[in-house]
Specification:
Layout lengths: L7 E3 L5 E3 L3 E2 L6 H14 L3 E3 L7 H10 L8 E6 L6 H15 L4 E6 L7 H13 L3 E7 L3 H8 L8 E5 L7 H9 L3 E5 L11 H10 L3 H11 L3 E2 L6 H6 L10 H8 L20
Parallel strand pairs: 3-4, 4-5, 5-6, 6-7, 7-8, 8-9, 9-10
Antiparallel strand pairs: 1-2
Helix pairs in contact: 1-2, 2-3, 3-4, 7-8
Length: 279
């Protein structure tokens, strides 16, 4: 478990991945995005998570390049969008993302959503990119257990990551257990549930007990579950706050109390119903 911001989790291929990173969803203003990313890098963040559909890979590339931090010290993730799925289209989409990020390789490349029928072809393209060394690890997002079962029955490389919506109202315990049993690291998007749990009594009680914010309590819960987190913010004070997670530890009882808040409540789309871009 991470003890500071640059500590890592080891993926199933031996690659070290920071356990805490910065998500950049909805950071569409280039100046604001570059400023936020560079502040995060100065604070000690080394994982930046973007995607083709976020339309800010260029900002990420610029921020890293101008930060003065060596490229090999920054862990860059991007994702292939739904409309680019399929073998040839994925290879082209990857090149486009690489150019926008101004880099020669990616650390992690993910399938953004499973859709219905193209993800195996897309995965073959990711396996090729991985075998050629263009990307250091490959994985998926929003895959349910049955998607993973179908993929594992037919793949050469087991996904290193499954990035899913995960927070105290959506603990996804069965899916997380499946991933753990198959050596797939879970990464949480929307890890603090878009700040919608700010008034949750249990979390407020724990925030007072540990003298931390509700967000810090939730993020610490994720870390102790072995989950990678990528909270998004453009505010320097929030970026700083989201990184101050290493001077306290939740008790086993408090971990259980947080997990007991599960309501199977999503704030994003359900993977089985999300087909935007596939049509």
């Amino acid at each position: 478990m991470a003890q500071d911001l640059q500590d890592t989790i080891t993926l199933n291929n031996g690659l070290a991945m920071p356990q805490v990173g910065l998500g950049v969803f909805k950071m569409t203003d280039e100046a604001e995005a570059v400023s936020a990313i560079q502040f995060a890098l100065r604070t000690g963040y080394r994982l930046i998570d973007t995607a083709a559909i976020y339309e800010n890979e260029q900002s990420v590339g610029r921020a890293v390049k101008e930060s003065g931090i060596s490229r090999d010290e920054v862990f860059l993730t991007s994702k292939v969008w739904n409309s680019d799925q399929g073998y040839d289209q994925t290879l082209k989409a990857f090149e486009t993302s690489l150019n926008k990020l101004q880099t020669h390789y990616m650390d992690l490349y993910l399938i953004h959503w499973p859709g219905t029928d193209k993800y195996k072809e897309t995965w073959r393209a990711l396996e090729r990119l991985y075998s050629e060394g263009a990307v250091k690890a490959i994985g998926v997002c929003n895959f349910q257990t049955y998607h993973l079962e179908e993929l594992l029955a037919d793949c050469n490389e087991v996904p290193a990551i499954n990035q899913i919506e995960n927070h105290p109202y959506l603990t996804q315990e069965e899916l997380r257990e499946y991933c753990q049993n198959h050596n797939i690291v879970v990464e949480a998007w929307s890890p603090i549930a878009r700040n919608k749990l700010i008034h949750e009594p249990t979390l407020n009680h724990l925030a007072k007990k540990y003298n931390k914010s509700v967000s810090q309590i939730i993020l610490r819960w994720h870390l102790q579950n072995g989950t990678v987190v990528i909270p998004k913010s453009v505010q320097p004070e929030r970026i700083q706050e989201n990184s101050s997670l290493f001077d306290f530890q939740l008790s086993l009882e408090d971990m259980k109390n947080i997990s007991a808040l599960n309501k199977e409540e999503r704030f994003g789309p359900h993977p089985d119903q999300f087909h935007i871009g596939f049509e």
